[in-house]
Amino acid sequence: MTGADSEESSRGEELGEAMHRFMAELYPICRSITGGGVRETLHAIQKRIPLQIYEVPSGTKAFDWTVPLEWNVTDAYVMNQAGKRVIDFKAHNLHLMSYSSPVRKKMPLADLRPHLFTLPDHPEWIPYRTSYYKESWGFCLRHADFERLPEEEYEVVIDSRLQPGSLTYGEAYLPGESSDEILISCHVCHPSLCNDNLSGIAVAVKLAETMAARQRRYSYRFLFIPGTIGSITWLAQNEQTVSRIKHGLVLTGVGDAGRITYKKSRQGNAEVDRAMAHVLKHVEEAFTLIDFFPYGYDERQYCSPGFDLPVGCFMRTPHGHYPEYHSSADNLDFVKPDSLAQSYAQCLRLFELLEGNRIYVNQNPKCEPQLGRRGLYRTVAGQQEKQWTELALFWVLNASDGRHTLLDIAERADLSFDKIQSAAEALLEVGLLKECPRPESTQWRSDHEYGLL
Amino acid sequence: MTGADSEESSRGEELGEAMHRFMAELYPICRSITGGGVRETLHAIQKRIPLQIYEVPSGTKAFDWTVPLEWNVTDAYVMNQAGKRVIDFKAHNLHLMSYSSPVRKKMPLADLRPHLFTLPDHPEWIPYRTSYYKESWGFCLRHADFERLPEEEYEVVIDSRLQPGSLTYGEAYLPGESSDEILISCHVCHPSLCNDNLSGIAVAVKLAETMAARQRRYSYRFLFIPGTIGSITWLAQNEQTVSRIKHGLVLTGVGDAGRITYKKSRQGNAEVDRAMAHVLKHVEEAFTLIDFFPYGYDERQYCSPGFDLPVGCFMRTPHGHYPEYHSSADNLDFVKPDSLAQSYAQCLRLFELLEGNRIYVNQNPKCEPQLGRRGLYRTVAGQQEKQWTELALFWVLNASDGRHTLLDIAERADLSFDKIQSAAEALLEVGLLKECPRPESTQWRSDHEYGLL
Amino acid sequence: MTGADSEESSRGEELGEAMHRFMAELYPICRSITGGGVRETLHAIQKRIPLQIYEVPSGTKAFDWTVPLEWNVTDAYVMNQAGKRVIDFKAHNLHLMSYSSPVRKKMPLADLRPHLFTLPDHPEWIPYRTSYYKESWGFCLRHADFERLPEEEYEVVIDSRLQPGSLTYGEAYLPGESSDEILISCHVCHPSLCNDNLSGIAVAVKLAETMAARQRRYSYRFLFIPGTIGSITWLAQNEQTVSRIKHGLVLTGVGDAGRITYKKSRQGNAEVDRAMAHVLKHVEEAFTLIDFFPYGYDERQYCSPGFDLPVGCFMRTPHGHYPEYHSSADNLDFVKPDSLAQSYAQCLRLFELLEGNRIYVNQNPKCEPQLGRRGLYRTVAGQQEKQWTELALFWVLNASDGRHTLLDIAERADLSFDKIQSAAEALLEVGLLKECPRPESTQWRSDHEYGLL
After folding, report:
1. Are residues B227 and B247 in the same domain?
2. Would the CB atoms of A391 and C293 count as touching at under 8 Å?
3. What is this structure's pTM?
């Protein structure tokens, strides 16, 4: 390990620990798709990055959906005849099914049982359940505890409120030279779950901190939103400007120990898809690329056919492929500082690639230019020094005909983007390249084209 | 085996037996490219389906060809000096080379021998030989019998007539909602051969019976024609309307015990090609797809460059790949009721797919619609029921942007067409989809485009 | 081995020996990118083929380059105190670094050493070094000899002249029916090196001799030029007419014992690329196809983005992949007459394919024509004779719709070009095909399109 490697590695370790500490701070908060828990979370984020917090009133229409009533909970428990709380929301917020309606009544175990959810295969874990759009109530508990419940009468109390209020989301916008945007979206609606929710938040906040301190060609928009209804609401509120989104990532499940998985956008070959594949190929030991499918996280909305935005999903082990998913075992131990740091680093490389992925035109397109007199070529032929540098120079010159981005060239040459970019910079400096405007490309189709108008 | 499976299986068995019985009825008839045998065959078909029989006079021009003289035969034999028929057309109609001109003379074995055809590798089989377009005569016989012929004088009698008459073919046209057609073509010119000829006829007749009883979006045209000259004549007579043919199949050799083989149309990626591949992939254990090549059956004519119709060839073991081909061993035992039933079932699935392969437009293209309030979604998140159904719903919604057929979606989702179609129907019912007209697509080029005019 | 094979083989042997003898004649000449050695070489070529020799004055601009001063050398040596030439240009012209400036002085070994080049890994070989564009001087020698040099004072003499003169190149132009050209380019700037330089010259000269004696549809242009500066100068002088070049080959390193390597043009799928791949596939036991990359020989200039000509590079073992490369071990023994003959034969097959690669239109595109009455079809069906011939006939008929060249058809049918061409000729003879003009295709973009104007 060189000094530089070791420094980078120790910086990575520190970063990973810092993100993990932030997760620990957010862990106890009871989040749902609306309510005080989301607000509290957004305020914690606001201490770190310039976050604007939006409140969208219950009842607001968002395409086919309506912003629901706001849900808040003060207390919830099941108490036995001896007056002991056998299930207690205050002990773990997963014990209460999210969006449970208020209840206060006594009932025998037989009546209570249909409202209890457990994981028989993992008897020590509490499952995570929600019922957002159908009025209902329920408790989740360890299967081991469930089996120990005697047949007796229980007092069931859910002190929750489902009232007109609002859906809350946060947006950190970092303006760049261009109004073209890179979107980073993560969900903030899960209670005490770590990989699924908090890991994405922690990495996104750290990325926003880093990018805020850099010069940016692109503008960056970091969204912290409730899953599904949040992205739908955001898209409805920002319908007129989403065409500015040129690249995007949904960040989720970025802290477990598994390998990185990148799920491509619906377009499948969008620049973000190719760029992320390139980054991973040139850095990672092992990773997985998967094609778009219309299940998963908020990429479902960004990639709905009426938007078809170039938004992929960056994660590690996909949801549902690890047993801890949606259970109390997705806790602070399940998420590794190293994994957080590595996820952060790859996303940052993606941004750097996208920032630098320009199109140039060779100003001396007929035959090679004489690199030697510009100091870019070894002078005594036959020496092997700087061979890759020269090859990169020649690739950039040969392929810079106004039709290829640097990423196109890196892929064609099978060299890393960094090498190709360095070559382009050297050629730019001696005037052999000129930047060329990128052609507009948007997949966005009008309502008229959809035959809806 | 479930009750439904077992019912379907017993229905398949019955169907296979029925097709086999029809073949047994047609087996003794001496067919050729013209003559009474074809007429007798078509009349037998006419008892089952509404068949129009056409007579095209000898001498009629059909592109580069001319309808030949009509050939009929009353008797044919080779008799030895003892007055015994050592080769007898009445014992097996393969004994006579098809289109043999009339002969009545005595000759020694030496003169007879050049007119005798055998299969030395299969000494118990009679070969099948024809000489349609060059006047000639000949007998085919078992090689074992040939070797027993003593050197003596033989009386050779062929009581045949080659006279002006007509070429006969049959057409069953089932009009549908649209004048767009599905063509099914099989040849009726082979004498007592089963897989090569009769199996295609039997399956085509049964398909026509089935489709006649159904509501049809497409019109269906079943052709029963002599090979080569029949399809050429039909194309010449119907040149102005062939552009109505949107999909087509040549049916041949569909009764042997081998796996199904589908030979793609010249276009190679026509809807019929993709649809048949999909059907086979989702039903068959093993099957073979082969690219078009300009040898084989009447697909050669339908796929000639001046027509280039989307017509594939559905068969089991390809001709020439089984030793029984074009010999007396291609008999009723060689063809299996099970194979006939399975061939029939796959063709029917193809028709069902083509009938249902429509393009829809998602009426709520921006973000996902709320399936829950339309009864299309599980209400408590986290349950695994109906998972494929939901995935199919989401695929149809996501991909129905007016550019994808249901088959496109099934292929992309890697789900069976049936699942995708069920999902589309459910969405159509709740108003989330609307059908969209399919773009015209024809490969047919004018004479002008060919530089012929 | 048949008589014909053996005759062809003995003719190949003779050809290979003849090419090798010509190389032996050129071997001793001291060539560089300019100077008398090149002129002497071109005069030797001129004795065999009609070669026009051009002189381009030093100082002439050629795009980003300038024709350099002309370099000539009379004598060069390093003499020890005992008056012995320890390094002597007259013993081997590789001893002197090409373009060394004049020197005449005494110096201790310490001062001389930075000017001495050896190959420590191959102590018996003399390396080849040049310094064209930076004034310098140097000697190359066997590492074994270098190690034996005692510490003493040496007299260093380089009797060279760097003076205004010219760059010399030769061009053999063979006009054909069309002004469309096939370009063959090889470099003539290396001193006593055999595979890298002389082998390409020998094969190109022989190809020119052969093509000069044939009827040609295409015009052929054989260039004998100094590497890099030569092709750049030629392109600058002929900028207005390079669009006539429809196919091209750089010939280099065609005499070693390794397998044939074809490096595709920048276009990657140009006709020359596909044609060469076809030729090699149908003749060679083993060969290598590699994609274009912007390193190598003069294809770098022909394939620069402002020209993007369809010019590939035909070689055997690529430069740098054999240790003898650019050393005295690349001598007459290293080059095999057999390899020369085989390289020649494949290039000739390429020319024959390109000459014959036409587009035809089937004059009877609707259904198959009746081949039988034109004598192109077996008369008794069921015989296996001439099967490939018929298949080739049917492929040509089926695919000749004005959009496919014979090479397209050969690739699609997976038959050799020869078979497809024979079939086309037979069909042409009976009037079933007509030739169709080929569409213009050039990748050449104007300065305006490059945004340079």
Report:
1. yes
2. yes
3. 0.91
Q: Identify whether residues A130 and A211 lie together within a single domain.
A: no
Number of structural domains in chain B: 3
Distance in angstroms (rounded) separating the CA atoms of residues B42 and B52: 9
Question: What residues in A contact B402, CB-CB < 8 Å?
Answer: 449-451
B385 vs B397: CA distance, rounded Å: 20
CA distance to partner chain A, nearest, from residue C7 (Å): 44
The DSSP bridge partners found for residue B160 are B73
Residue B107 in tokens: 């000759």
Which residues of B make CB contacts under 8 Å with C? 62-65, 117, 127-134, 136, 228, 231-232, 235-236, 239, 266, 293-295, 300-301, 303-308, 326, 445, 449-452
Chain B residues inside the 8 Å CB shell of C390 = 295
**Do A281 and A389 share a structural domain?**
no
In sequence order, the β-bridge partners of residue A263 are A290, A313
Burial class (CB in 10 A: 0-12, 13-18, 19+), A193: buried
> End of a domain among C312, C339, C356?
C356
Q: What ipTM was reported for this prediction?
A: 0.91
CATH code of the domain covering residue B126: 3.50.30.90
List chain C residues with CB under 8 Å of B127: 382
Same domain, B350 and B435: no
Chain C interface residues (partner A, CB cutoff 8 A)? 62-65, 117, 127-134, 136, 228, 231-232, 235-236, 239, 266, 293-295, 300-301, 303-308, 326, 445, 449-452
C304–A401: do the CB atoms touch at under 8 Å?
no
Q: Same domain for A230 and A338?
A: yes
Interface test with A, best of B359, B364, B367 (most A CBs within 10 A): B367
> Regarding beta strands C260-263 and C287-290, do their DSSP bridges make them parallel or antiparallel, or are they unpaired?
parallel
Specify the pairing of strand A116-117 against strand B287-290: unpaired
The residue out of C335, C356, C377 marking a domain boundary is C356
Per-residue burial over B125-154, b = 16 or more CB atoms within 10 Å of its CB, e = otherwise: bbbbbbbbbeebbbbbbbbeebeebeeeeb
The neighbouring-strand residues paired with A437 are none
**Ordered strands of the A433-436 beta sheet:** A401-405, A359-362, A433-436
User: Can you give the CATH number for the domain in which A63 is found?
Assistant: 3.40.630.10
CA B84 to chain CA mean position, Å = 41
Residues C138 and C85 in one domain: yes
Same domain (yes/no): B333, B348: yes
What residues of C are in contact with residue B300 (Cβ under 8 Å)? 368, 394, 398
Read off the tokens for C176: 């054909």
* Residue range of the domain that includes C154: 71-163
CATH number of the domain residue A378 falls in = 1.10.10.10
pLDDT tens, N- to C-terminus, chain B (453 residues) = 455 567 777 788 899 999 999 999 999 999 999 999 999 999 999 999 999 999 999 999 999 999 999 999 999 999 999 999 999 999 999 999 999 999 999 999 999 999 999 999 999 999 999 999 889 999 999 999 999 999 999 999 999 999 999 999 999 999 999 999 999 999 999 999 999 989 999 999 999 999 999 999 999 999 999 999 999 999 999 999 999 999 999 999 999 999 999 999 999 999 999 999 999 999 877 999 999 999 999 999 999 999 999 999 999 999 989 999 999 999 999 999 999 999 999 999 999 999 999 999 999 999 999 998 898 875 444 444 455 588 999 999 999 999 999 999 999 999 999 999 999 999 999 999 999 987 765 444 555 555 554
**Residue B285 CB burial class (10 angstroms; 0-12, 13-18, ≥19):** exposed
Tell whether C128 and C78 lie within a shared domain.
yes
- Chain A positions contacting chain C at CB under 8 Å are 361-370, 372-373, 379-382, 390-391, 394-395, 397-402, 413, 434, 436
